[in-house]
Structures are given as structure tokens and as C-alpha cells.
Amino acid sequence: MLIVPCPNCGPRNSADMRYGGESHSRPDPDSTPIEEWRNYLYMHDNPAGWLKETWYCGSGCRRYFTTERNTVTNQFREPAINYPEPGGSQ
Amino acid sequence: MPTLGKKVGSARYSAGGLLMRGLRKQDWPRVWNDHDIKKKYDVVIVGGGVHGLATAYYLAKNHGITNVAVLEKGYLGSGGSGRNTAIVRSNYLTPEGVRFYDRSLELYGNMSVDMNLNVMFSERGHLTLAHADSALRTMHWRAEVNKLQGVNSSVIGPDEIKKIAPSLDTSAEPRYPILGALYHPPGGIIRHDAVVWAYARGADALGAHLHQQTEVLDIICEGGEGPDGKGAGGKVTGVRTSRGDISAPIVVNCTAGWATLISDMAGVKLPITTHPLEAAVTEPVKVFLPTVIVSGSLHVYVSQTDRGELVFGASIAPFATYSQAGSLDFTEELAGHVLELMPGIAKMRLLRQWAGLCDMTPDYSPVMGFTPVEGFLTDVGWGTYGFKAGPVSGEQMAKCIADNKTPELIAAFDLARFGEDRLVGEKGAAAVGH
Fold it and tell me: In the 8-state DSSP scheme, what is residue B168?
């Protein structure tokens, strides 16, 4: 079990969340070569240490956010940042 | 070909030997030896679990390659090899998977005799329960694929399930009633520590060096496109360990949960993330559960050991971590799911729980064989199915190294498949819900 710090709801059990894995930006599907797409899909960093990752606060604010976690100790560190709202209103 | 147990300082195990040693009050000799690290080996295997040790054993036994070192950071079998739930089976979904795991089951079946060590293989049958029409459909699919590959599997209904395992609640009462099951008689359980010891003893007797407490700090490469000559186009020249440098033309990565940390050292990127899987065991009771019970929908598998303990496994944690700590979430969820299947065991107490690390790939199939770095081979991506694949992986990786060519049985599991859209979607894997 993890206590995940949601930027909107505060600390919550990871069972309330959906894990999105390593946080990396999605390449533009129209202009990206297929090789890069495959890398984007399959090749993720898997460090024993700090990892920037995405969480979805499904049972709370229902927002996506990124934060950093140490994959050995499972400690989180600041900052936890909301994904921009679709349409860019935030 | 050298024979096991004939070496000085070793002993062949037999009932007569046990009796004689008992009468004479003799101790048993050490099962494997410690060696000084040599400066040069023909093959260095990173990871002293079932896969690494089996590879060393088959390199020596089948191909006569004995100048081999197995490097283990902790003690032999300290990773997934000693943490799995010891279930073996071959009723997978893809033809590639079925053929591969079936060979492993064959090797496990002969292991006690071949290796002169009782691995306590109990071929007790394996039931994969279906709680929904979609799951039942997958079971039929798996049964047909299995039959086509000559593997004994069939779909049975609740009445037959009740006959095989009377403690299961096959009524319509539970929230997820049991609609049917994939019955796989050749499946069973085996003593996982004994498998590690058998391969360690075998590899040691045939001349391989097993170095425990030896951590790999770096992999030395030359000619690659990345920094320090690592990466694609380069080749391996050796490894840097906590006990000094070793020169070797071939380095094999058999480190399961830690696979990406080792392959990063060679500049090889793997499509793997590390997730923990938790397991638990109860106090021992009289034997009542005759088969292995698996429920994909309820994320649980149960078997009863020869000592009478129930061993439970679950699905992997949803987030990546290298922590092997247990969690209350797991125990709570496990208890709920197990009691849904077997309400009669409500008063049993858990003895302990633990976690192991699973190296998960996107398609639930392993990553085996050659990489873009010459001399650097992988036998990783073992997720939740590594233990049952141990013998065949060792055999095939040894063949791969000896022939310098990918054997047909593991050709589908190469790293290059992720760049060529040839994924092997193994939905028969234990971590996959249906």
C-alpha cells in the first residue's frame, strides 16, 4: 500500500488511484516515426531510485497528476503537479 | 560426460547412504563449493536463481562448457526462485508458450532422477476457475490450443470441479459463482528451494563456479554507440564486480526483477518494469485440497503443501517498485477472495506473507536470447511465470550460447520483437485477469 499525495485531495491510499507509470510526453502521432512510437509504447525507465510518474486520482478529484517517487523506499517528494485541463483552461 | 555426485567432497544421495550416515552419525558434505574468482571465464551469468543456475548446469552438461561463473548479489535462490508459489503447469494460451512450458514440465518431471535430488514434484492437477462467460470462453480457447500441442487440458463443469476439490463453493451463491474450469492434470507443485539446490549442486559438480555475495557493478563493453562503448553495435568484454573485474566474452542477464538495472549497464534498453507480487502461507492443517486452484478473476491461486500449509499468491501490485515489503491491502483482499472460493477455511490463520519482484513485459512473454550488444544475452521478462520456466530456459539459453544461434523454441521471445510488432500476447499468464 502507498499513501499517494494528490495535489487536490491530499494524501490518499493508492487503492483510490490508478497508476500511470513513468511520466513522459506523448509524441505527435501524425509526425512521429513508427520506431519512436514503439519506444514510447514499450520502453519505459525502470530505475531503482527516483522516478517521475503519473497517477490518476480516480476515486477523488478524478484528475491526472505527476509526482516523484523513490521506487526502492516508496517515498514521494514534491512537487505533485496537475495535468493541464483538456482544452488548456488551466 | 561427467556424472553427478562422483566428485570428491560431494555425495550421491540414496536411501542406503542415508541409513549408513545415520548409523555412523556422519555429516553430509557441503552441497556446493566456494571458489576464488578467476580473472577470466568463458561465460559469466548474472543472477544465481533457477534460471542462472540452470543455464550454468546445461552449459556444462549438454555442451561441455564448464569455465562458467554464476554471480549472485545475495545468496543462491534469494530472489524470485525462493519466493514464488512453486506451481508448475503448461496450459498457456499461445502455441509458443504452450510448447515452451511443456518442455519445462518434462524436465521438471525427470528432475529428481536426473539430478539425484528429490525436488518433491507433486503432479496433482491444476484447476483454473472461470467465473464469467468471457473467462469460460478463454478456458475453451486455451484447452483447444493445449490439445493441439499435445498438452492434457479440458474444460469441466461445476459438478466435476466439486468432485475434484470438494472444499470449493460451486453453488450459485457467491458473488462470482464458479461456472467451469480449465482442468490440467499434469500441473502441480514442486519444492522450489530444492530446484535451486539441485541446479547449484549439479552446476558445481560439473565445474561451474558459484559466487555468492558478489554484486555486479558494471558491464564492460567496447565499440558501442553509447558512452564508454556501451550500447548497440558494441560487444561485451567483461564485468566489474564487488570482488574485482572479470573478463568474459559472454555475459548473461538472469536477474528477473533487477533485469533493467543490469542491462542498463550494457546500454541495452528492455521493455520491462518491476512490480512486486505478494504471497502468503497459512498454518498447517490436515490435507484437504488435492489440486492447485487458480482464479484469474479473483486474482488468487491456492495450493496445499506437503506440510499442510495453504500457499496463496495474488496478482502483481499495480505500481512499479523494488520494495519487497508486505502490505495489509494484499492480506485483506486475499482473504476476501479466498473465502469467496472456500468459505470453510474462515478460521485458518496466516503464518507469514512476503513479496517477490516480477519483471513485467508488455505482452506477458519473456525476453530471451541475443541483444544489440554482442556477447550480452538476456533471459529476463519472467514476470509471474519464471519459476515454472526455469529448466527449459536454462536448457535453451545454454543451447543459444553454445550454438551462437537462437534455438527455435525461444525464437518468438527475442528482444527484437518489440521493434517489429511481433508481440506474443500470453493471456494465460497468472497475472492476467480475464
Answer: S
